[in-house]
Each structure stands twice: as structure tokens, then as C-alpha cells.
Task: structure prediction
Amino acid sequence: MARRRGEGIHRWPEADRPRERLFQRGAEELSEAQLLAILLGTGRRGRSAVEVAHELLREVGGLRGLDGASIAALAKRRLGVGPAKLAQIKAGLELGRRVLRKDLEPGFDVTSSKAAYEYLRPAMRDLPREIFKVLFLNATNRILGEMDTKGSVTESAVYLREIYAQALQRGAASILCAHNHPSGNPRPSGADRQLTEELVIAGQAMRVPLLDHLIVGETTYYSFADEGLLAQYEAAHVQRRRAAKQ
Result:
């Protein structure tokens, strides 16, 4: 039986109700709009919750657009969803992100650049501006803790002294650094390369080496270690020191 436009979800045939479909088939069987409709609970005059959810996702560019924008920014766009509902949606998205990271909290072993990327991606990929993050690792590359600064590599407070002061305080055997590119392209800039070389040199001096520097992009990442650049920077520094002694 066809439903009337804007009719409340509770009046829909049971098979079409997102909540009932979730009970019967599991959340994985629902579309993004249907899941979002459950968080919304109700629609607005003339529009069902599912229709409102479809419109919202279309207007903001999908779940990632919804996740990346602040409540204030979304409210200004007059999307037909009030601050209270937006807060519910944001809370749901944050819970999902925390589930992804549940098994990747401090204590997680960084076994490869990919493992580090999977750890960092949920928190860094869709940010509207750059942040610089440091993971402090023990001798077996287990994460002891982390720190981050807001802003780009060139304009933010990426202070080597602070990084290594915390590394020594935490008893770190090495560090792994990462920052995101909001453009989605992880290709390193000249500033990225310069900073990485400075981190390598400082790590040698402090005997807390840089294990890797990752640039987190939209769907992939760049690893300075995997590209062989950390070894190049280290070798060049050793050569300069030897030349200076001659």
C-alpha cells in the first residue's frame, strides 16, 4: 500500500520503517539515510524523517560532510534540522568514530605505516584544517600516548623542544609524527620535507628517533619512511657532521 507524502513513520508499513527494519535485519541492512532518520526521530511538515535525512545528506555532501561541519555551520545553512537534532547526529557520529578507535587506544602496537594510518585516519582525515600529531612509542613500538597542535605545518606551533621534552618525560624510545592535508592530497610540500628533516636531526641528537612522518589524505597517506626519505635525511646529516670535523 502506498504511503502518503509526509506521513509519520509510525503509520508506514512495518517493512518500510527504519527502526523496525533495524530490529528485524540489523543496522548493516539500512541505508545511511535510514540510519540518519532513526537519529532524527521525526521529520517536518510535509516531509518524513527519511526524506529529511536524504535532503540533509545531499546538501552537506554525505556523512563525511555532515561529520566535518560544526553544528553552528550546519545551523546557519537552514537545512530544516534544528540544533537539538544536529547535536544528536553529531553525538552518533562521534560514538561511531570512538568505536573505530576502541582497539587502537594507547597500548596499540604500530607495526607498519598502514597500521599507524588506520589508527590516525578516523580523527584526522576529514578535519577542515591541519593538525600536527605526535605518537610516543616504546621500544616495541607500542603507543604510550600522543599530543597534537592545531594549524598547518608552516603556521602552527610544531615545537621540536616541546615534542622531545614530552618524549623524554614519557620515556619514549621513538616518535611517529603525522599531519593531515584538508585538500585530501597527501603529497608532501617543501615545508613538510624541511620539518621532517629537522625532526630526524633532533631525534638523532636526543636519541629518540623519528620512526615515521605520515601525511593523512582523503583516501590514502604518504609515509616518509616508506619512501626512504628518513634514511636519506639521516645519512645526509651524518655526512655533514663528518665534513664539519675535517
About this structure: Residues 83-101 form the longest helix (19 residues). The two ends are 90 Å apart (CA to CA).
